[in-house]
Design a protein that fits this description.
homodimer; about 425 residues; alpha/beta; nine-stranded mixed β-sheet; about 15% strand; globular
Chain lengths: ~425, ~425
């Protein structure tokens, strides 16, 4: 197998839009996507005519199971006035949107299109909550993984307990990821749980936090999070606040060929690396503390972009569970194997740290509408690189950003690298 | 919106493989795809190393609903030994495989890949038959189409009754399509119902056909097909033998860039045209007797290939219902509007006629494993153009072939044009 290589044409992202992420009874995928599309339209610095969009690539995990509606790409295209352009749905479980993004990229590089829209959408909260975990489990391997009695919290709990065993991490190590992501998400108005954990705890009316007390330290937060009533165990060592939520949300991105990017944008964000890899089921891998498809996708993306992990200023990684973020920061090469947990404990991945991770709040705080999440990551990178991330803007004028989006237990992983020039 | 244009690189199909189509209890999508993959391997004239395959594009409509297994692209890639290559599932309802084929084409044209595998798979018969029509209905618009009380037989029955009203066709017009496709399918060992209609009738132990009688004429067949017991009404005027079956099946195709095609094949089949279009729901269209996305996809494909309908030697079209084939032959420009029915009656679309349609047996006789059907069409065109279609081989040494694959009620349509040089 050859490695990834340069595309025949460069591609830039010139517009992004995102609905609120959360639970929105009465809104379908179409409604959520319209919100994203409208915001994307206004985000293009120099404006554009939607009739110039030549194709639509939609990430959607399973409208089939969540809404009883498959085949959503042409329907969403119609809903935002883009019929009769080609419209394709791509599915790679929770990595669906980054699969769609990669194909949008190739679509432009192929010469077929100059401008495409990439979207992601998922409407998860219509399905009765008792069935959501089963619907998500269809993203895992039903023959080898699910039949062993696992659903996703169990898979990632296995990775977490292996990580504890192998590297001496503790449940507190994982909690530090959640605390940090909720601190970031508290500055993101679109986040589903956009609040610091103490505030969320208060909202849950637990007795762990009294009104009027001084703002708690992270040590206080750990104490709250260790309370079984406040933060029940889901699958040891993963507790409620180690898990990303069930969410509704939509995202729209506008991609154009590099040559014409400045016709639309004062400050286009260029896609300089794209890596994608697949894998078999969990049992066939040498270790539970690393995801091989992520390592390979990262390697291919770095090679294509001609950069290394050290060059990346910020990253949005796939923190479906807190352990997943720690493993991601190692698979991406930000930290050595076994050091990601320590890095989280030491605050190296906070907004103030040297390697900021999930400044948006991540899936944990922002929400995880599975087919949209990978596109939501790109929204954050785009805004941070352009200096438009508001209260959560990084100080250091980031130039290179990365997204890492995982499907299943790692059957799919896509890594993309973005540059501000 | 721009029209489709030339790709940055040409692409050829150098291998094809297909499982039997039918109902196979005990076989999953993985098993079906393995059969297709193995045959594809042996079909490559000069051989190849599967490790050279750089990416996998899978068409699959809804493993989610049919098998409780989404995310099948990486799992099938693993199953045939191709991990860790990028693996994407594409879904465009019954056009899923042609959506995957188009993206495979763009993947090579983009410069990212030199060799990709495109597949299609569906395992429909595990789901209880009472739920299959509901599962298929998720490919239609649940807000505008299904909520009006329609499932697919109803949609196409509406098109058929409109066609009768507008052009004076009769139920017999539609029956002629089924008779012709079963005649073709009787020569296709992989077809699900690979037998002429009288033989199928006999197998159903109807009294309409007595053993030992001379082979019936098409007039006899019409008589059988008009018998309500032998051929029950599904949705007037569509009877059982106007409907494609519920099927299991898998297909694998090997695509390479034009420059290297002769390294693998003595006789590569070049993809010279690709058109794709989308549409909104049925109620928003001006007419029930034409599918606008099909007309546009055809127009774009012809322009890209620089040919017209008159140049096409044979076509595989999407005959999910007999009326659909008639409309397809008009939308593709083979016959004027309203003349496709007459053409079918006059035998113009038979293997001996000037415009052979569905020499494979079509979805009607060969079977319609929905996510695989569009790739199955390409198998037939590839074999016919290479002179390898066995008993059903066309005499006229066809040079240009076309595939037409529709999703939903026409929300998606893809047209591809293939050339033997």
């Amino acid at each position: 197998m050859r490695k990834s290589r340069k595309l025949n044409r460069g591609v830039a992202v010139v517009g992004v839009g995102m609905s609120n992420f959360g639970a929105f009874p009465g809104m379908s995928s179409r409604d959520l996507f319209v919100d994203a599309f409208k915001e994307m339209r206004t985000s293009v610095d120099k404006g554009f005519d939607p009739k110039e969009i030549e194709a639509f690539y939609l990430g959607n995990f399973s409208g089939d199971l969540f809404e009883g509606q498959a085949h959503q790409a042409p329907m969403l295209a119609d809903w935002v006035g883009l019929s009769p352009i080609p419209a394709a749905r791509l599915e790679g479980a929770c990595a669906s949107a980054s699969v769609a993004f990669r194909e949008g990229l190739l679509g432009i590089a192929s010469g077929m299109y100059d401008m495409v829209m990439v979207g992601g959408v998922e409407k998860m909260t219509d399905l009765h909550i008792s069935k959501v975990t089963d619907a998500l489990a269809t993203a895992a391997d039903i023959t080898y993984e699910v039949s062993a009695g696992f659903t996703f919290p169990g898979f990632y709990a296995s990775m977490a307990s292996a990580y504890m065993h192998q590297y001496g991490a503790t449940p507190e190590t994982f909690m530090r990821v959640g605390i940090k992501n909720h601190e970031n998400g508290a500055l993101n108005k679109k986040a589903q749980f956009g609040a610091r954990i103490p505030d969320l705890m208060e909202a849950k009316k637990t007795k762990a936090l009294q009104k009027g007390k001084p703002i708690p330290t992270w040590k206080d937060e750990i104490e709250f999070l260790s309370d079984d009533r406040a933060n029940p165990l889901i699958a040891w060592p993963m507790r409620l606040f180690d898990c990303s939520p069930v969410s509704d949300g939509g995202v729209a991105l506008l991609l154009v060929s590099e040559e014409i990017a400045h016709q639309f944008s004062d400050d286009p964000i260029y896609v300089i690396g794209s890596g994608s890899a697949s894998a078999g089921a969990l049992h066939s891998r040498p270790s539970l503390t690393s995801i091989p498809s992520a390592k390979l996708a990262a390697q291919n993306a770095y090679e294509m972009a001609n950069v290394t992990a050290k060059d990346i200023d910020l990253a949005e990684v796939h923190d479906c569970f807190t352990i997943a973020e720690i493993i991601a920061t190692e698979d991406l090469g930000f930290f050595d194997a076994g050091k990601g947990g320590i890095a989280a404990e030491e605050g190296l991945t906070s907004r103030q740290g040297p390697q900021p991770i999930n400044t948006s709040g991540g899936l944990k705080s922002k929400g995880h509408p599975v087919g949209a999440s990978g596109a939501g990551q790109i929204v954050e990178i785009w805004k941070q690189l352009r200096g438009q991330a508001g209260e959560r803007q990084l100080d250091k004028s980031p130039r290179l950003g990365l997204t890492h989006n995982v499907g299943g237990t790692g059957q799919t992983c896509n890594v993309h690298i973005f540059e501000r020039r």
